[in-house]
Amino acid sequence: MNQRSSRLNARTRRRISNLPVHAVLMLLLLLSLLPVAMLFIQSGKTAEQFDANPWGLALPYNFGNFAQIAPGVTGYLMNTLTVCIAAISIALTIASFSAYVFARFAFPGKELLYYAVISLMMVPFVLSLVPQYILIRRLGLLDTLWALIFPYAAGGAVFGVFLLRPFIASLPEDLFEAARMDGANELQTFFRIALPLCAPIIVTLSILLLLGQWNDVIWPSVAVLDEQYYTVSIGIWSLTRGYTQQTEWGLVFAAFTITSLPILILFIVARRFFIQGLSSGAIKL
Amino acid sequence: MFRRWQSAIVIVSRPFCKNELVIRAAGRKVIAMRHVPQSSNTTVARVDAPTSVRRREALRKRVWRKRHYYLYLLPLFLLLGIFSYFPPIMAFFYSVHEWDGVTLRPVGLQNFIELAGDPVFRRSTSNVLVFLVASIVTSLIPSLIVAELLFSLRSKGAEDFYRTLFLIPTLVPTIVITLTWRYIYHPQFGFINEMLSAVGLEDLRYDWLGSFNTVVPALIFIGFPWVQGTSVLILVAALYNIPSDIMESYRLDARGVWKRIWHIDLPLISGAIGIICVLTIINTLQGLTYQFAITGGGPGRASTVPAFYMYREAFYNGRFGYASAIGVVLFVIILAVTLLSARLFRSRVDFDPPTKA
C-alpha cells in the first residue's frame, strides 16, 4: 500500500514537472493552428458580420456561404479528383510492377537501369518546368487534364519505384519459392504475393502523391488556362482575384474551407498511413 | 576484405538463377571462415564465386535470355522517357537558344552572359539567399524544440496527441495557407493591423507586403511559429532511435539536460537534421509560391526570386530560351548543394558502424 502510494506520488510529481512543457507545446500548437481556425471562423460570416468584426468569431454561423460558393468550387474539386485518381493509378500500376522486377530478378544492366530511374529524383522541378510546358504544348495536351495527369504519373512512378523496390526486396524468398512450387509464373507471384503484401506501403505512397498533386499550383497555372479545367489550387487562387471586396471574404474563406476538407477528412480516416508516409518523406533524398 | 563482404550482403536477398545451389555450397565454407553471422542469409556467398558460370556466358546471350524483364520495364521507361527524361534534357538545349515560342535561334552562351549582367537576376539571387538562411532557421529550430519537448514528456499518448495536431496545418493546401496569410497582412482589414489597432498601436499599422522594406521579412514570417509537423515526426523518430543505454547513462551522470541535448541528441540525430536541411534548401532554392500567389515579386523587384523570375520570363514575356538558362543555373546550384551536403552528412553519420564485425 505504502509502496503503491509512493509510486503514485512519483507519477504525479512527473506530471507536475511536465506542466511547463505542456504549456509551451500548447502555445505553439494554438499559434500553429490559428490560420486553420481562421478558415473555419471566417467561412461563416455575412458581409455585416465582417464589417462589425473582421477577425473574431461571429455568431450565428452563416452556412449560406458554403451553399453559395459550392457550385463554383465543385468543378475544381472534380478536376483535381480526376487528375489525382488517374495519375496515381497509372503511377502505382507501373511503379509496383517495375519495382517487383527490379527487386526480385537478376538481369544484365539491372542496377544501371534502376539508378537511371532513381536519379530522376535529383532533377529539380525548376529545370523541367519550361521544357515540360513546351512538350505538353507540342503534344497538343495544353488545356486538357492530361497535361496534368502524365507529368504527375511520371513523377509518381519514379518515387514509387524508389519506395517499393527495397520493400519488395525485403519480402522473404520462401513465399515466392512456395508459389513457384505451386506452378505460379512471374506474373502470378506478383499479383498473388508481392502486391497484397505491398498494400500498406501502396496506401502510404498514394497519400504522399495525393498531397503533392493536391498542393501543386505552379504547374496547373501554366498547363491549364481554361477555367473549365482548373484544379482546386488554381481555382481558388483565381477566386480570390474575383472577390476582392471585403464583404465577399466570407465566400472566399468558405471556398478555402471546402477545398481543405477532403484531405483533412482523409487524414482523420487514415491517420496511420499519413504519419507513416510523411515520416518516410525523409528518405526522399 | 571486409568491404567485399559487405557489398555481398547487400546483394543477397535477391532471388536468382539456376547456378544458385553450387555457389551457395561453395560460399558456406567461406562464410564460416570469415565469421559472418550465421543468421545472415545463406545466399550471401553468391557474389564470392569468382569463376562464376554466369561470367563465362556472353553478355549478349544473357540479355537475350532475360529479354522479358526488359519488356516488363518498357511501360515505365516509355512514360519516363517522354515526361521525365526529355524535358530536363531539352532545358539544356533551349538554354543555348533564343526562343519566343515561334522562332528558334541558336545563340551559344549568350543567355548565360546576359544573365550574369542582369540586375533583376542579381536582385533575385540576393533575395533567395536571405530566404535560404531564414528558411533553414525557421524550418529547423521550432520543430527541433517541439521534438525535444515531446521526447521529454515520455508519454506515448501525449506525444501522439501533439504530433497529430501539429500535422494539421501541413495538410491544408499550401495555396490556402498562403492566401490566408495574404488576408492576415491585408493593409486595411488584415488580422495583424486589426490587432495593432485593438491594443492601441494604431501608428504601427502598415502595408507589410506592399512596402519595400518589410516585404521580405513579412514573407519569412508566414507560417509563424514555423513548426513543421513533418519535421517533428522525423526528429522525434530519430530521438527515439538513440540507443536507450546511451540516454540512460547520461541521465545517471546527472549532467544537465542541455548538455545531453548538445553532446548526445544533436550529434546522434544529425542525419535527420541533415535531411530536413537539404530538403529545405532544395525547396527554397526553387520555391516561387509566395511570389506567384501573393507579391508577384513586388513591390518593384523587392521580393522576387530566381525561380519566379524564370516563370515570369517564360510565361509572361515568352522568353523560353532565357528562362531555360535560369533553370539550368538553378539546377547546377541545387545539384551542387545536394551532393555537397550528402557528402557532409555521410561523413558525420559514419561513427555508427553499419555491421558488427
Question: CATH superfamily membership of the largest domain in chain A, which one?
Answer: MetI-like
Number of strands of chain B: 2
Contiguous helical run count of chain B? 18
Largest sheet of chain B: 2 strands, antiparallel
Mean pLDDT of chain A: 88
Characterize the overall form of chain B. flat
**Main sheet record of chain A:** none
Strand content of chain A: under 5%
Structural class of chain A: mainly alpha
Q: Kindly estimate the percentage of residues of chain B that lie in beta strands according to DSSP.
A: under 5%
Rg of chain A, nearest Å = 25 Å
**Unreliable runs of chain A:** none
Percent helix of chain A, as a range, is: over 70%
Shape of chain A: globular
Task: Provide the domain count of chain A.
Answer: 2
CATH architecture of the largest domain in chain A: Orthogonal Bundle
Secondary-structure element series of chain B:
HHHHHEEHHHHHHHHHHHHH
Secondary-structure-derived class of chain B: mainly alpha
Strand order of the largest sheet of chain B: 1-2
Explained architecture:
The complex is a heterodimer of chains A (285) and B (357). Chain A is mainly alpha-helical and 285 residues long. Helix content of chain A is 78%, strand content 0%. Chain A has two domains: 2-43; 69-279, Orthogonal Bundle (MetI-like fold), CATH 1.10.3720. Chain A is built from twelve helices and no strands. Chain B has 357 residues and is mostly helical. Chain B has a two-stranded antiparallel ribbon. The termini of chain B are close together.
